[in-house]
Amino acid sequence: MQNALQQYKLLLADYLTPQWKRVLGLAIALLTSIALQIINPQILGYFIDTAVQGGSQQALLTATIAFIAIALLTQGTEIAATFLSEIVAWTATNALRVDLAEHCLRLDLSFHKAHTPGEMLERIDGDVNLLSKFFSELVIHVLGNSLLLFGILIVLCFENQLAGMSLTAFAIVALIALLAQRSIAIAPWAEYRQISAEYYGTIGEHIAGREDIRANGAVNYVMFRFYELLQRWLPVYQKARFASTVLWFTSVGLFTIGNAIALFLSAYLWSRNAITIGTAYLIFHYTNLLAKPIERIREELEQLQQVEASIQRIHQLLNIEAVLKHCGQAVLSSGACAISFKQVYFRYESENWTLHNLSFHLPAGKILGILGHTGSGKSTIARLLLRLYDIQSGEIRLGDCVIADLSLSDLRSRVGLVTQDVQIFQASVRDNLTFFNDQISDAYILETLELLGLTPWLRSLPDGLNTQLGADSTGLSAGQAQLLALVRVFLKNPSLVILDEASSRLDPQTEKMIEGAMDRLLEHRTGIIIAHRLPTLQRVDQILMLEQGKIVEYGDRETLTQQAHSRFARLLRMSAN
Ligand SMILES: Nc1ncnc2c1ncn2[C@@H]1O[C@H](COP(=O)(O)OP(=O)(O)OP(=O)(O)O)[C@@H](O)[C@H]1O
């Protein structure tokens, strides 16, 4: 509880302090509406007593007008409170969404591998949605309704001490009973939200893989998994709802008892001439009015159970730290840079080394070709150079700097990578190519597109560079997407270019056509070309062959080609045959 309160306080302080003026306005509107709700029954009580005692019509008319005016004012303040609470909630939850999204984007690739995009969506948006009420109303309503409760009990004490004391005792028992049950639904609601996250994760995964699923006849398997998930979901929802319903039953039972006490007391006091009929009405009315704050406090506490589960999950997420530290400050010197690997060992979360004692040196401005069977660790080298993962031992240097000492943003702005899987975003052609960098001129983009033979493609688009591309590469062939990825690297103007099967989706004719462009791209830059096709490696200076993460051959391409017994020469002969 202490911990939960601490978490509430931190969240409220972080996200409500910047909009404290609105929160103050909201508090004033809510408190005014509460005060008006306590005052208005007094007018009714006065009206009844005046009518019973045969009071003047003028007095009755004034009471009626005052009653209507206060009722209208109450409505007005409630509208103002709702309006302000929506703005407060949206502003706070949007800020929290931004913080969570930024935090998740900074987390390591290993974290994202373990969590599907759908699950992340649900965790960022679903959990935060639940918090909107927490930010806008919960705290103010719990406080406001507690004040309303307190105010009603004081007024009741003024009307009649016996009635006031009895109903105060009743309200205390009711609140204790409701508070005692507060936490019973937290665990089921947390479990419910976890399954909900898995549900969205599964849907996202299956929509993304729809082509493979259909092509491989895996629809039944997918539906089976989906069905299994739904089967787990319903009982958890029922458990959570049942736990919340227990609270509802308790409050309904308590109000019935409260009304019985009020009726009994009013009848008893009136029969003994201790109170007027107007006061009897007031006692009954205020007891009914007591139900409102107690009921609201119950509802809010019920919501708090769901919110508490969400807050816990949000804190868990925010407490996950990236293993990869962003602390390096060193900056690479401009121009092409040398690469050196010294006794590098690396593994993902498995027992076995993915890269085993790797050492090589590529001078600045030279090009290295990496060959090896599927899964031998070629792409892993590229990921290490971009510091998507950190090595377990050894040293990787770019230029004079160990890459762990470089600022991550500087490192990543200086390395250009093209892979087989090109991500196209739902944005214009221009933004897809420049990544929203408006320093890059249209003229330079057009020149680069021309270099890669993409001008006819651009002309075929309805709005040229402004044409919106669909997410998931819709409307582009895999080869076209790969050419666009090459354009991106050109525009980025990096010091090191890594082409990881970058032309694997291109037909031989297109690959030949862009050869000149490739030469331009690699000019005055250091390059790494990872390829299965030997012709792609014609322009490289060095060859490195990998087998199960170990270097089995490394040397100058010319020299290896001359050595008849080298693996590379054998490969060349095999491909020539
Ligand atoms: N994110 C990851 N988490 C765990 N293991 C991984 C991850 N990425 C790759 N691996 C494993 O590391 C090994 C090397 O993978 P890598 O992608 O570097 O191979 P590759 O030589 O580039 O293969 P390909 O020619 O198919 O692209 C493989 O056994 C692969 O299963």
TrEMBL record:
What Gene3D superfamilies does its record include? Answer: ABC transporter type 1, transmembrane domain, P-loop containing nucleotide triphosphate hydrolases
Q: Which SMART domains match?
A: AAA
Occurrences of domain ABC transporter (ranges): 339-573
Instruction: Name any GO cellular component annotation.
Output: plasma membrane
* Source taxon at top rank: Bacteria
InterPro entries documented for this protein: AAA+_ATPase (IPR003593), ABC1_TM_dom (IPR011527), ABC1_TM_sf (IPR036640), ABC_transporter-like_ATP-bd (IPR003439), ABC_transporter-like_CS (IPR017871), P-loop_NTPase (IPR027417), Type_1_exporter (IPR039421)
Q: How does it sit in the membrane?
A: Multi-pass membrane protein
- What keywords are assigned to this protein? ATP-binding, Cell membrane, Membrane, Nucleotide-binding, Transmembrane, Transmembrane helix, Transport
- The region annotated as signal peptide is none
Q: Which PROSITE patterns match?
A: ABC_TM1F (PS50929), ABC_TRANSPORTER_1 (PS00211), ABC_TRANSPORTER_2 (PS50893)
Compartment(s) where it occurs, according to its Swiss-Prot or TrEMBL record: Cell membrane
Q: Give the Gene Ontology MF terms in alphabetical order.
A: ABC-type oligopeptide transporter activity; ATP binding; ATP hydrolysis activity
**Keyword set includes Cytoplasm:** no
Matching PANTHER family = ATP-BINDING CASSETTE SUB-FAMILY B MEMBER 10, MITOCHONDRIAL (PTHR43394:SF1), ATP-DEPENDENT PERMEASE MDL1, MITOCHONDRIAL (PTHR43394)
What is the protein's given name?
ABC transporter
Q: Give the species.
A: Leptolyngbya boryana NIES-2135
